[in-house]
Amino acid sequence: MTEGRIIHSGGKDAVLIFGAGPGQVPYIKHFRGQGYFVVAIDRNPLAPGAAEADFLIPVSTFDYPGIRENISESGLERRIAALCCPATGQAYISAARSAAWLGVPYPTEEAVLGVLDKYRMWQALAELSLTRRKCMHVNPSFDFKAVRFMPAVVKPRSAGGASKGVAYCRSGNQLARAVSTAASLSPNGEAIIESFCPGEEVKIAGFLQHGRVKSSVIARRCFGPGDPGVPIGLAVGPSEGCQRNDTSPYLQAMIEQFCRHVGLTDTPFNIDIMLDPVQPELIDFDMALGSIRHLMAESCGIDVMGFFSQLCMGQPLAEKRRWWRGAAITYLWCRNLDTCGEELVKLCSGVAVNGTFSPDSGLSRGTVTSSAPLRVGSFFSKGETLEAAARAGQQWLHRIDTYFRNSAKWSAEVVFPIDSAWNDN
């Protein structure tokens, strides 16, 4: 990796990648393996992907002026052939602006705002008659008596990432506290309040090209010990009880209709859907695959990195869906976490059997003393069936829980069953 103002790319085309954290390392390695000169953006010069990239722009992925200045001064704009943004949240805005300036493929800023701003997303769904939920955007000074629907879900209007600030509320007092927290995490200082939609929650992830879903995978999403046995996380693949081979054609058509409406034509997607028996509800949309890329690769045999690079380069994607085994993502959430970083990662990795642990980005940023649950990272496991993969994740969580209980070294506690996103105490 080179950090500076003068670079020599050896005549290679360059790819601009937003982020150099653990989640972006596979993308950096993939594009370098394809022969591209990789330019990574990350404010942390010690991020794990910084050493893997050919060149580092040491600014925040949110800082479009800083990104543009560094690219211009380095002469990189003449080399960049594609842009890849596996980061989340406000990084999408910087990516859209950078792509427009550089003239490389990426969704427009208006299209990005159509999914990043959760109130605008709800408005689009309402215009298409694809939602029956009620929704309102508020700031911390709102009058909770104006909310005519309960129970309700509160979330930041445009934060993005790891269910931060999401709360389930049954009373006005809970609403007031939840709105204050959610608004503090949103760049515009607002939260949204949605009517609660019960039902089985699934996650659909894949690639959209020319407005069509070209490849996708559906995963069970659980917030407590559920049918697949995942304490919290995702599970996909052949099941002992049922065979779920493909995304429902109706859900796929709904995704394509929504994306056309907001102006998205070519993007990875990672969508949360509530399977209401009357009408499925699209409740969240992310333009990064996140940890579900493991499930796509291991359960369906999808070449995720290959698809991603082809999409970035504007090359045609082949349709591919093939299920052959089970896989699961199990998340670790902790309360009262007074130690993090390398020591906690070592513990989580050390008790991992039949799987691998990946820390969440931001874990190494210092001590966390808040009693609010923190998502520490995820455990990826495989099995011949969905249930076998999920059991491995459940056993991993129990090992960590047992270690915490038996050691005076840690004051942290595993949130088990997980209630971080729906904690209404």
Descriptive key words:
single chain, 425 residues, alpha+beta, Rossmann fold, Dna Ligase, domain 1, D-amino Acid Aminotransferase, Chain A, domain 1, 9-stranded antiparallel beta sheet, 4-stranded parallel beta sheet, disordered C terminus
Task: Describe the structure in your own words.
The protein has 425 residues and is of the alpha+beta class. The chain contains 11 helices and 17 strands. It folds into 4 domains: 93 residues, Rossmann fold (3-Layer(aba) Sandwich); 62 residues, 2-Layer Sandwich (Dna Ligase, domain 1); 114 residues, ATP-grasp fold, B domain (D-amino Acid Aminotransferase, Chain A, domain 1, 2-Layer Sandwich), CATH 3.30.470; 87 residues. The relative contact order is 0.11.
Task: Give a quick rundown of the structure.
This protein has four domains: 14-106, Rossmann fold; 134-195, ATP-grasp fold, A domain (Dna Ligase, domain 1, 2-Layer Sandwich); 200-313, D-amino Acid Aminotransferase, Chain A, domain 1; 328-414.
